[in-house]
Design goal:
single chain; alpha+beta; Nuclear Transport Factor 2, Chain: A; 6-stranded mixed sheet; about 30% helix
């Protein structure tokens, strides 16, 4: 099942980069909980439920003219997967550009994403996942 989780994470990131909300959220549990990091936290620090998460994703895409995730690796952690990469953003109104480390820890339950937690550094994400390096 864990290799399937890694593939699901890849599909989610690909859909996110295409700004395809239906595909991005297709594998999300209806009761998903998302704790975004930095620029993805548009209105609150935690979003609960598919509706709130979907609205937050759409708001983030609206606020950022460019919001692309570039994958470096995905670590299979059994019932979770850790995505490590970079976030490249450009503000819609401000045109301010950001290019930085970014990570997301995806936790799965019954084959669906139950929780996502974003991090602004790989080290923070690795430590939170119990993989401090």
């Amino acid at each position: 099942m864990s290799q399937e989780n890694v593939e699901i994470v890849g599909q989610i990131v690909d859909a996110f980069n295409r700004r395809d909300l239906a595909d991005t959220t297709r594998q999300f549990d209806p009761e998903i909980e998302w704790t975004p990091a930095g620029p993805a936290a548009v209105e609150r620090s935690v979003y609960r439920g598919l509706d709130e998460v979907s609205e937050a994703l759409a708001a983030g895409w609206e606020a950022w003219e460019l919001f692309q995730l570039e994958e470096r690796e995905v670590r299979d952690l059994g019932d979770s997967a850790l995505w490590l990469g970079r976030a490249q953003l450009r503000g819609d109104a401000s045109q301010v550009e950001v290019d930085q480390e970014f990570a997301v820890h995806f936790l799965f339950a019954q084959g669906r994403v139950a929780r996502m937690h974003g991090y602004l550094s790989w080290q923070d994400a690795l430590e939170a996942a119990g993989l401090g390096e």
